[in-house]
Design a protein that fits this description.
alpha/beta
Length: 345
């Protein structure tokens, strides 16, 4: 199997200009809604029409997978939590479930590499991924299968009516491969990308730094081949997420990005499908240091800075109401003429 994505068409510059021109005649001083105006224009450009359509089916897809490196003391939580949290998602008890209910989104969880049996394992590539500091995470075939799963999930969701997508993550130890991917593709050193993840202590931080150092040494020879990089340094869940983000751009569907794990998948997705980043907006900036590097690499400014680091898609869902508001302002706000209000002198 060879992974190839078609050329990504950018959002419409003409419609973006039309949206900004519409903002100039709405009943407010020009620019007074700040980034909400830019955000609404981005939505209009993605949809190819102005005013934009209100979103009817925002969808969160949580990618779950275990990571072999979690066996080596890089997380504050044991690996079995991944499978337990899948059950929690399905029961509606996780943070992303609560946030999505408030924001008007629905949540789907997919087991791509959980090291236990789950009710949502139809897309499982393998049980867990290799410990990337000493072995490849995946075989080349497994990496390609995972990317294709991400592509298929987008097609299923968009064909089913999803008009805005959010990718979430669940996997104990997953901030370690995320940091490695971001360091590899941004040319950063291990100490610049290592974070506290689930809340590790100083000894855990040192173990994690050493694991990232060793994994980065293994990653650097393959950075010119994104699929090889995923096989060497990611995990089936992150590889599937990279395929998901790239395919969303191919399908012209806007995406709100979440934190550091989604950010790592995004920097690889941009390598798989150049130009995909134009279809994404950054929901927030995680406190994980690697996330700021990923956003800088992608030239994306976060909508929120709430010191969040949970994952699951939670930061992206927290930003979803802003995207909805920006869209509806363009669609529903009166113009000076329609409201009989005098415009600027």
């Amino acid at each position: 199997m060879t992974i190839e994505f078609p050329s990504v068409e950018p959002p419409s510059d003409g419609v973006r200009a039309e949206a900004l021109a519409r903002h100039a005649v709405l009943t407010k001083p020009v620019g007074s809604l700040g980034r909400l105006e830019e955000l609404g224009a981005w939505v209009a450009a993605c949809q190819g029409e102005c005013p934009p359509r209100p979103f009817t089916r925002p969808r969160v897809v949580v990618f779950a997978g275990d990571h072999g490196v979690a066996q080596h003391g890089v997380s504050a939580y044991p690996p079995e939590v991944t499978g337990q949290m899948v059950a929690n998602f399905l029961a509606g008890g996780a943070a992303v479930n609560v946030l999505a209910n408030v924001a008007g989104a629905t949540v789907r969880v997919v087991d791509v590499a959980v090291d236990s049996d789950t009710p949502v394992g139809d897309h499982k590539v393998r049980r867990g991924s290799g410990s990337i500091d000493r072995e490849d995470a995946l075989t080349r075939d497994e990496a390609e299968r995972a990317v294709e799963i991400g592509r298929k999930l987008v097609d299923d969701e968009v064909d089913g009516g999803a008009d805005l997508l959010i990718a979430g993550d669940m996997g104990i130890g997953n901030t370690t491969p995320a940091a490695v991917l971001i360091a590899a593709l941004t040319g950063s050193e291990p100490v610049a990308v290592v974070g506290r993840g689930t809340g590790i202590d100083d000894r855990g931080w040192m173990r994690k730094t050493a694991a990232i150092r060793d994994a980065l040494r293994r990653a650097r020879p393959v950075i010119s081949d994104p699929v090889a990089l995923l096989a060497t340094s990611s995990g089936a869940d992150i590889a599937a997420m990279a395929g998901f983000l790239a395919q969303a751009a191919v399908r012209k569907t806007p995406v709100i990005l979440d934190g550091v794990v989604t950010g790592a998948a995004a920097v690889v997705a941009e390598e798989l499908a150049p130009g995909a980043r134009d279809w994404w907006v950054a929901g927030h900036r995680s406190v994980e240091p690697a996330h700021a590097l990923a956003l800088g690499h992608l030239s994306l400014e976060p909508l929120l800075e709430f010191d969040m680091r949970l994952g699951e898609g939670s930061g992206a869902v927290a930003a979803l109401p802003l995207v909805v508001m920006a869209t509806r302002v363009l669609a529903e706000m009166a113009t000076f003429d329609s409201a009989g209000v005098s415009g600027p002198a």
